Amino acid sequence: MSANTFSFHYSKHHQAYVTNLNGLIEGKPLADASLEEIIRESAGKPDMAGVFNNAAQVWNHTFFWHSMKPNGGGKPTGAIAAKIDSDLGGYDAFVKDFKTAATTQFGSGWAWLAVKDGKLAILKTGNADLPMVHGATALLTCDVWEHAYYLDYQNRRPDFVQAYIDHLINWDFANENLAKAA
Questions:
Q1: Could you count the other beta carbons within 10 Å of the beta carbon of residue 6?
Q2: What is the CATH number of domain 3-66?
Q3: According to the model, what pLDDT value does residue 106 have?
Q4: Residue-wise pLDDT tens digits, 15-54
Q5: What is the pTM of this model?
Q6: What are phi and psi of 15, to 5 degrees?
Q7: What is its EC number (predicted)?
């Protein structure tokens, strides 16, 4: 991911969600709530769609930044590696299924490695949707909104997803989240 893409994505898109959310909850009961509380309180409520969308996008993007690290990617180590082997059929199967989830998400959204019902699962969500409102715990995510990759990859989402898998995944972060989910 180029510095230009990261800067544009973080300082424009992510910041817009933060600014919008702050404006929507200012002076209201949710103003002092945690981001997770705001998301859970607003999920599925049409009259709070703007609050949910902005809160979830702040959470999703913050999680995405932590899901990456310089010189990341490649095969995982530790507990996450063992869970990928036992629950998903190994690293190669994970790569295939995660890439499929990310590249077949119609329109904007996210690909996730998550824990659901005690087992690893690969999920995809559209727009601002996220695993926590579906009873799952996110371990890592890849942003597949066009703003995440278009400056570097234009319409080549599969190439961006492969670069994310090969060079950016922060397996340490995934292991930390797995430990908390247990």
A1: 15
A2: 1.10.287.990
A3: 78
A4: 788 788 988 899 999 999 999 999 999 999 999 999 999 9
A5: 0.90
A6: -60, -35
A7: 1.15.1.1
Q: Where are the domains of the chain?
A: 3-66, 79-181
Q: What are phi and psi of 68, to 5 degrees?
A: -125, 155
134 known ligand binder: no
Type of residue found at 55: A
* Rounded-to-integer distance, Cα 100 and Cα 74, Å: 17
Question: Using alpha carbons only, how large is the chain's radius of gyration in Å?
Answer: 16
Q: Residue 176: which residues within 8 A CB-CB, separation 6 or more?
A: none
Whether the CB-CB separation of 171 and 80 falls below 8 Å is answered with yes
| Largest distance between two CA atoms of the chain | 49
Is 14 annotated in a binding site? The answer is no
CA pair distance 38, 172, nearest whole angstrom: 27
Task: Say if residues 44 and 56 touch (Cβ distance below 8 Å).
Answer: no
Cα dihedral across residues 39, 43, 45, 48: positive or negative: positive
The per-residue DSSP string of 63-115 comes to HHHHTB-TT--SS--THHHHHHHHHHSSHHHHHHHHHHHHHHS-SSEEEEEEE
Which residue in 173, 165, 175, 178 sits closest to 67, CA to CA? Answer: 173
Same-fold call for 3-66 versus 79-181? no
Token couple for 158: 């599969």
Q: Which amino acid is at 139?
A: L
CATH topology for 79-181 is: minor pseudopilin epsh fold (3.55.40)
